[in-house]
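BUG-289 | component: ligand-complex export | severity: low

The export step for zinc ion jobs runs without errors, but we want the raw record kept on the ticket for reference. Input record follows.
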Amino acid sequence: MANGNLKLAIQKKGRLTDNTIELLKRCNIEIDSYDERLLVSARNFKLDLLFLRDDDIPEYVQDGVADIGIVGENVVREKKSDVNIKKRLGFSRCKLRIGIPETDELEDLGKLNGKTIATSYPNILNDFLTKNNIKSKIIEISGSVEIAPSLGIADYICDLVSTGNTLKLNKLKKSFTVFDSEAVLISSFKLELEKEKIDVLSNLIKRIDSALNAKNSKYLMMNIPKDSLETIVKIIPSLKSPTILPLADENLLAVHAVIPADKFWQIIDDLKAVGATGILLIPIENIIL
Ligand code: PRP
Ligand code: ZN
């Protein structure tokens, strides 16, 4: 499709798909339903979506078949693909971990010496072992790695863990972390020649930044006694100076501030203690910094 649109490769079905589509929505990019379709153009942005297996995304981007992609950093690292990591997206976090039988103990990394480890991530695992000066035997398996220990073909496994349910189902437990992963936005080095697409990409990145900032922030509103203003301003972990507004009741003030969402529950008791009332916490759609 030579329509000048930026081509974005995303996972067709899996742990990244919903989060990726949600991010695009938060960027105000509208996509028609994409059931069973491999290529869909956005309705209101110069963007085409290519739906692929996550394992294929780095190579498509490296070769310039897709201009950019959203994929787990684990896949990018494992494929040793020659692509730009443009941005960490903070979602679909998971860890590549050593998994061991429930009844085993693995006190220190050194105990991996001489063991056999089954994994779909031989490159990342090999880098990790080399860095830690450990010699294990790596067996590469492309799927259902978790059953390798019970089949007797490996002592341990190295696989993605997020909830830990898959390990538990297979009577395994998590041990050392080999790699911390999250979704990343990657771009092709071939894109550097296409001015028009680069403009679309920088617009997209601006929207992503705004969406990510907004997601991590909330709008806090409350009424406070006038004389506790100084204390309250110190408690609020505001992005900027809070807004102070007079109220009909002269003894009260309204205070509004954008705060990091995860701080709210840490400060709520302090706010109440100095007399804040009518506390509201409101989601924000976009923040342009
Ligand atoms: C991974 C991994 C495990 C599972 C772990 O597979 O191989 O099977 O997720 O997740 P849990 O700790 O929440 O149970 P995934 O579905 O991501 O498929 P892929 O690695 O083949 O892309
Ligand atoms: Zn996969």
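Assignee comment: Attached the raw record above. The chain has a mean pLDDT of 94.
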